[in-house]
Specification:
451 residues
């Protein structure tokens, strides 16, 4: 057995040199195998990473996050960065490279922080511009009020102009017809008012000598007042002490007021005519500021608002006519003079909400004082009751029928508008409430109901 084993070719016993030679390649082969195993493991790891990256790419934009996309698109700054990436403080790989990529897209330099001086300067500049705008509006408040009144009158008369246009008249002739009607109403008012005023002035001038004679008559009422209060002496002393200049100043102020009223009336009438004539052009110009896709809806809403404002004006005219007729009937019953003129005056004043009917009632009560004190008191009581009935019964129901506004909204709108802008505010309060209601119904409430 030992001999056979020794004589077997390739055995280690028979050829020690061959064993050494065979083991050397075996060791080399083992080293190579170990190297091959290490390289294989590295290759397998690289393949796993590649497979993961490929899986991420195959996942698409829905699965790949913005950080992964930025790591694919943003190359490293240098070879050292590629060989040894550093983790950011948050522990997210590639965040620093992503930030650098965004900086390069935005211009390469991050936005600088604004200094406190720049912030303060911007705030001061904005405050100064706001103050200047407020002061400008306050300076132009009177003119803006007149323009607002003119636009409101033009919009209120638009249904009449449109009706004449549907009858076949051109717009210019329709505006001229409305102007002629307004001039006729004004002429009728002057024809009713001027004769009583003329008679009152003549009676005043004729009564001055009689009153002077009564002042010196100790048995008359004026004479007894003169004996007790020395009215003539006090009047002469005030005139000599500078009262004449005060009287002259009062007369001058009254003249300035009259001129201002005439100028304001001319401005309102002129602007009203221009707006009435060019209202379609003005509307088309304003519609051009609206995008084309939304323009038809805006046009429909605007036309609805203008239509309701016109109906409001017709309702206001109806309530004013009721006030004028009631005044005429009352004055005829109790014997107050100039019943027709007073009824016309109250009808015109009643078109102004809040204060119009009050002013008309005061004037009629003062005229009734020429009859007797009980008649004047009864007239004042009549107008107080009529004012309550008009504000809380007639006007809300008429506005409900004309513009479909709840009576509570009508009362609140008139009170709020009168408190903010006075007579003009009370005049445009109800149309503003109508416009606000239409805008809410068309734009706001559908969105809130659908949400």
């Amino acid at each position: 057995m030992p001999a056979q084993a020794s004589s077997r070719p390739g055995s280690a016993v028979s050829d020690p040199h061959r064993r050494d030679g065979a083991e050397a390649p075996r060791e080399q082969g083992g080293t190579d195998a170990a190297g091959t195993g290490t390289a294989g493991r590295e290759a397998a790891g690289s393949q796993a990473v590649g497979a993961e990256a490929a899986g991420t790419e195959k996942a698409g934009p829905a699965d790949a996050g913005p950080e992964t996309a930025r790591r694919r698109t943003d190359p490293p700054e240098s070879a050292a960065d590629a060989a040894d990436p550093q983790l950011p403080p948050g522990g997210v790989p590639g965040a620093s490279q992503a930030a650098e990529g965004w900086r390069r897209r935005l211009g390469g330099v991050p936005a600088a922080r604004r200094s406190w001086f720049q912030i303060g300067f911007g705030l001061a500049l904005g405050g100064s511009l706001a103050w200047l705008l407020v002061q400008t509006v306050l300076k132009l408040s009177e003119l803006l009020t007149l323009l607002l009144l003119a636009v409101f009158i033009a919009v209120s008369l638009e249904p009449v102009v449109a009706l004449l246009g549907r009858l076949g008249l051109r717009r210019s002739w329709s505006v001229a017809a409305v102007l002629a009607g307004f001039a006729g109403v004004l002429a009728a008012f002057l024809a009713l008012v001027i004769p009583p005023v003329t008679d009152a002035v003549n009676a005043l001038s004729d009564g001055i000598p009689r009153w002077r004679q009564q002042l010196h008559d100790h048995h008359s009422t004026l004479g007894r007042l003169e004996d007790r209060y020395h009215l003539i002496e006090k009047a002469q002393s005030r005139l000599s002490a500078g009262g004449a200049s005060q009287v002259a100043g009062g007369v001058l102020g009254a003249g300035q007021l009259v001129i201002s009223l005439i100028t304001s009336a001319v401005i309102v009438i002129t602007v009203t005519l221009y707006v009435m004539a060019a209202l379609p052009t003005i509307k088309q110009f304003c519609y051009r500021f609206v995008p084309g896709t939304r323009r038809p809806r805006v046009e429909a809403v605007t036309e609805e608002i203008l239509s309701r404002v016109g109906r409001y004006m017709l309702g206001n005219i109806a309530t004013s006519a009721i006030a004028g007729v009631a005044t005429f009937v009352w004055c005829e019953v109790v014997g107050v003079p100039y019943a027709a003129a007073l009824g016309f005056f109250v009808a015109l004043m009643d078109m102004v909400p809040v204060v119009g009917s009050t002013v008309g009632g005061i004037v009629v009560s003062l005229v009734a004082l020429t009859v007797s004190l009980p008649v004047a008191l009864a007239t004042a009581a009549f107008y107080i009751g009529f004012r309550v009935a008009e504000d809380y019964l007639i006007m809300p129901r008429a506005m409900k029928f004309a513009v479909d506004v709840h009576p509570v909204v009508t009362v609140v709108a008139v009170l709020a508008g009168g408190s903010l802008l006075g007579i003009i505010g009370g005049l445009v309060a109800i149309p503003a409430a109508v416009a606000l209601g239409i805008v809410l119904d068309e734009y706001v409430f559908p969105r809130t109901d659908a949400s």
